[in-house]
Design brief:
The chain folds into two domains: 4-154 and 294-344, Medium-chain alcohol dehydrogenases, catalytic domain (Quinone Oxidoreductase, Chain A, domain 1, Alpha-Beta Complex), CATH 3.90.180.10; 165-290, Rossmann fold (3-Layer(aba) Sandwich). It is 24% helix and 27% strand. It has helices at 42-49, 99-102, 145-149, 151-163, 179-190, 206-211, 224-231, 278-284, 296-307, 326-335, and strands at 4-12, 15-22, 31-39, 65-73, 86-89, 92-93, 113-114, 126-129, 137-139, 171-175, 195-199, 216-218, 236-241, 256-264, 287-290, 317-322, 340-344. Helix 10 (326-335) links the parallel strand 16 (317-322) and strand 17 (340-344). Helix 1 (42-49) crosses helix 10 (326-335), helix 4 crosses helix 5 and helix 4 packs across helix 9. InterPro entries: ADH-like_C (IPR013149), ADH-like_N (IPR013154), GroES-like_sf (IPR011032), NAD(P)-bd_dom_sf (IPR036291), Zn_alcohol_dh (IPR050129). One of its GO terms (molecular function) is oxidoreductase activity.
Length: 347
């Protein structure tokens, strides 16, 4: 192993530099991961552009969707993990003591640290996993590194669907058919949803939405609500906002079923506002639920689904650019024109 490595360091919005630094030294209990898969999502884009600052400590190395090989360890590895295994990395390290943790919400821990935020993420050739996060390593040896890295957004989607009680719903509407929207479609069908409706303005994505299991794929034009009403005369049980825009919900407020759930799943700009009529919520017993990242158990559930082929994700992986073009990769991810864009840190 070389004594140095390269990583992309974000010093300020739009100021990312490729730096050569020493390979991290391990403290007792730490594990060293050689990164072999690093994907980008909208959160990385918002951090890079300065639209997300909460929980972010600059300078920072982005990339919370990562997988790699166990390269070294200072002490015993977690149960089920062996040297040179391929692992995906649950990105959050909660404190275990705050109100959120004690109430069963460690994913929104008030004192959490996270890979790609405060801890170096996947845009680095090696990542040190601190002792407190050793159990965040989940072995996944039967798929490619990029399929292993996509466990993170799958786990986030699973968390969102659990909170919105998707299992058992008759009709689910997924607004947006980007990579996460497609994951939501696949998970909803895997959970037995009878009718999944995909609404996506980019008609180039309609075929893959249908191939993902959507029973109906629509564009958000003026008559979309009426078309949904014809498909689901009893109403939509769950709306999943898989794109961070208010218009991912507003057109569908008139087609919600009694007791419907609204999953505010995607991240929004800080000034985004959702407007709902209070009495509509009151009289129809609507539930509005957020979904922030995921829990470790979601990771532990999602990884085997991908590892054994129950959930196909290879077609959701898009362009992979070399580390020197990491900023370009973020711009490509922001464009929405590709699938899950990533960075090959060794190219």
């Amino acid at each position: 192993m070389s004594a140095t490595m390269k990583k992309a360091v974000l010093h300020a919005p739009h100021d990312m530099r490729i730096e050569e630094v020493p390979v991290p030294e391990l403290e007792p209990g730490d594990v060293l991961i050689k990164v072999t898969g690093a994907l980008l999502c909208g959160t990385d884009v918002r951090i890079y552009t300065g639209r997300k600052t909460r929980n972010v400590s600059l300078p920072s190395t982005l990339g919370h969707e990562l997988a790699g090989e166990v390269a070294d360890a200072s002490g015993p590895l977690p149960e089920g993990v062996h040297m040179h295994d391929q692992v995906c990395v649950y990105p959050l390290v909660p404190c275990g003591n705050c109100a959120a943790c004690l109430k069963g919400h460690p994913n929104i821990c008030r004192n959490r640290v996270a890979f790609g935020y405060q801890l170096d993420g996947g845009l680095s050739q090696y990542v040190r996993v601190p002792a407190a996060a050793r159990d965040n390593l989940i072995p996944i040896n039967n798929v490619s590194a990029l399929e292993a890295a996509i466990v993170e957004p799958v786990a986030c989607a699973l968390n969102g669907q659990n909170l919105a009680k998707v299992a058992g719903a008759d009709t689910v509407l997924v607004a947006g058919a980007g990579p996460l929207g497609l994951i939501h479609i696949r998970l909803a069908k895997a959970q037995g949803v009878k009718t999944v409706i995909s609404v996506e303005p980019n008609t180039a994505r309609h075929t893959i939405a249908a191939d993902s299991g959507a029973d109906v794929v629509l564009t958000p034009d003026d008559d979309v609500a009426e078309r949904i009403r014809q498909i689901a005369p009893d109403g939509v049980d769950v709306v999943i906002m898989a794109i961070g825009r208010p218009e991912a919900l507003t057109p569908y407020l008139g087609v919600l079923a009694p007791g419907a759930r609204i999953s505010v799943f995607a991240g929004f700009n800080s000034d985004a506002v959702l407007e709902l009529v209070a009495n509509d919520i009151h009289y129809n017993e609507y539930e509005i639920v957020g979904a922030s990242s995921c829990r470790l158990e979601n990771f532990q559930q999602a990884a085997p689904m991908i590892n054994d082929g129950r959930l196909k994700v290879a077609d959701l992986i898009g362009t992979q650019l070399p580390l020197a073009r990491a900023a370009e990769a973020i711009d490509l991810a922001a464009s929405g024109s590709d699938m899950r864009v990533g960075v090959d840190v060794w190219a």
